[in-house]
Amino acid sequence: MIAVEQLTKIYGRRTALDAVSFEVPRGEIFGFVGPNGAGKTTTLRILAALMEPTAGRAFVDGADVTMQPDRVHERLGYMPDFFGVYDQLTSAEYLDFYAACYRQPKARRKKITDDLLELVGLSDRRDQAVDTLSRGLKQRLCLARALVHDPAVLLLDEPASGLDPRARVEMREILKELQKMGKTIVISSHILPELTELCTMVGIIDQGRMRATGPVQDVIRQLTSGRRLRISVLGQREEAVAVLKPLPMIHSLSAQNGAIEAEYEGDDATAAAILQTLTAAGIRVSGFSQLEGGLEDAFMRATEDTP
Amino acid sequence: MNPIAVALWNPIVAKEYRSRMRTWRSPVAMTVYILLLGGLGWAIFSSMTFAARNSFNGGQAANYGQGLFLYLVLFQMVLLAFITPALTAGAISSERERQTIDLLFVTKLPSFSILWGKLLASMSFVLLLLLLSVPIFSLVFLFGGIELDQLAAAFLVTAVSALTLGIIGIACSTAFRRTLPATVSAYGAAFILLAGSLLFGLLFPTDIDPNATAAPAPPAVTYLSPLIPLITIGTNGPINNYGVRNGNNNVYPSGGGGMACSTTPAGVQSCYPIGPNGASGKVIAGPSSNLVQARGTTIPSGLFSGWQYWQATVTMQLVLSLIALIVGAVLLSPIRHLPWRRRAAAKATT
To answer: I need a surface site. Which of A249, B131, B238, B327 has the fewest CB within 10 A?
Structure first.
């Protein structure tokens, strides 16, 4: 559905994107992760045919973003990270205006407006002036605006930024609903735990370079080499470290909140062997659990060793 | 949707009308406009009646009408030169500042439609102001001295000039990312159009061709200013003492100004130019009846020879508007599909 090939964008002497490539198949939710200034917004703006790349190509549902921007606009809904609203328009008029801009017939526009206001939970605010809505409600209205022409692809640039926890949860619920409707969604966000739950694919970008891309669990596995154990012992931490350190399967040891975190290479049987070694050495183990590697961990690792 | 409907379809116009008319600014602007125009009309009429009361020959109603009309059309033009850039200079730049322009770019509206919609919405308000002024102008007909075609020509010149200022304002709004520089440049352009072109006529007047059989006319650039045709329409006569070196084209046959003339006993008049550039000593000879003098509102010579002043102004302004519109449309589009770039892109992909 979305294909990005060697996308490069250079502003003066600064390279914002450096040969970025990734693909998002139909119906997937692609989480686009990266620190501020990594190139997320630039990539999304190029995909929305709002900016020309210096080199490389990008396609949305087969349409070239540079050569066929009109076809691209038919197929995608775009929600920028920062956006304004018009004064003197109500929520319903705001959506009706954009529906008209997408050439929706007048007869259908009222139904589209009503349906979308209901989807984003703004039915009771249809006659409220848009400039008086709170930021969270404006975000929801802007999401509804991106859907007025029922696009197959949604590009959402930081849709949850600046929202309070409740508004974030509500936004996540709406995105889940859109996922059920079969939309292909590219979402850039800093809120990594939410992305892990929501996304089927992820791309990690840093300093204009794509560090990793693919299904979420693959990327996590790829970036967090080895598995981790959290071991709690009763007052014998130094002895436990002395036992663990010489073991060949242990990569590293660290102290975390009074417990020992051990990164090791192997499977569940290896973990059982480590526990057995500790108890055989007379260490009184009070806690022993495996830690799941998350997107946050993968993200930190992908971005920590950059020059 | 048929092609004409697609071309005319523009939701921006309806949205702009709605937004504009819901604020207090529009009714206030309309009221102030009418009060200023009506106030000036009343002041001119009062001063004319006062002058007539104190003169021996008394005032003639037709003169009242003509004088009133002339001042009103000129004042209306100056008012619109202040109002139009304010309406259009922020049209695109304010969308950028408000961060709403991208949301328009990703719709099916072509960039040109965005530009056109903004222009149409602004110019509709200007048209509304012009329509509001019609009752004030109709008072002129109470006195006479002005024909309906003069009124129509004056309104056409004013409307086209406002359109030109509007399009230049939109082009400035597209070229500058911020409203302030866009507004300053739009007002600068309005000043150049109204006064700068007139100044050009003063600084670089037409040299008198001693061999010419037609009266000299000001340089063609000066017709860009709507003030010249409005004066010719209002006075129903040519522009005198302007745009011609050393002279006044109207005094040509009588021998004053930049020409020295003498008449032989046989009735043959000889004229030669005097002054820094006219001292060639060439003599124009011939019966005085053959000398053409500037009459009426027709341009006597030059690029627009034989045209009415207002026709030349309208034509030049429409050409200028078209250029500004094309520049604006090219600058506005986020991805510019210029033919040579399209060819280069096609070559790169093969």
So the answer is: B131
Do B176 and B87 reside in the same domain of the chain?
yes
Q: What is the pTM of this model?
A: 0.78
Domain assignment present for B212 = no
Give the C-alpha separation, B137 to B65, whole Å.
10
The answer to whether the CB atoms of B100 and A98 lie below 8 A apart is: no
Q: In chain B, which residues have their Cβ closer than 8 Å to the Cβ of A103?
A: 1, 9, 108
Q: A55-60 and A209-215: which strand pairing? A: unpaired
Task: Tally the domains of chain B.
Answer: 2
A2-216: CATH number: 3.40.50.300
The secondary structure element, H or E, covering residue A18 is strand A14-24
How many Cβ atoms from other residues are within 10 Å of residue B321's Cβ? 20
CB-closest option in A51, A74, A100 to B334: A51
Q: Is the pLDDT of residue B327 over 70?
A: yes
Shortest Cα distance from B171 to chain A (angstroms)?
Answer: 20
pLDDT digits 0-9 by tens, B260-272: 444 444 444 444 4
Contact B11 A97 (CB under 8 A): yes
B172 within a domain of the structure (yes/no): yes
| Residue B71 within a domain | yes
- Residue B219: which of B233, B236, B234, B199 has the closest Cα? B199
Q: Where are the domains of chain A?
A: 2-216, 224-304
Same domain for B63 and B181, yes or no, is: yes
Q: Give the number of beta-carbon pairs within 8 Å between A and B.
A: 83
Residues B87 and B62 reside in one and the same domain: yes
For the segment B180-197, the average pLDDT, to the nearest whole number, is 93
> Is the complex ipTM more than 0.85?
no
Q: Which of A77, A82, A100 sits opposite B11 (nearest CB)?
A: A100
Give the mutation candidate from A51, A65, A101 for the B interface (greatest B CB count, under 10 A).
Answer: A101
Contact at 8 Å (CB) between A119 and A97?
A: no
Residue B254, domain extent: 234-290
Q: Report the SS3 class of residue B107.
A: coil
Q: Are the beta carbons of A84 and B104 separated by less than 8 Å?
A: no
CATH 3.40.50.300 fits A224-304, yes or no: no
Could you give the CA distance from residue A6 to residue A18 in angstroms, rounded to a whole number? 7
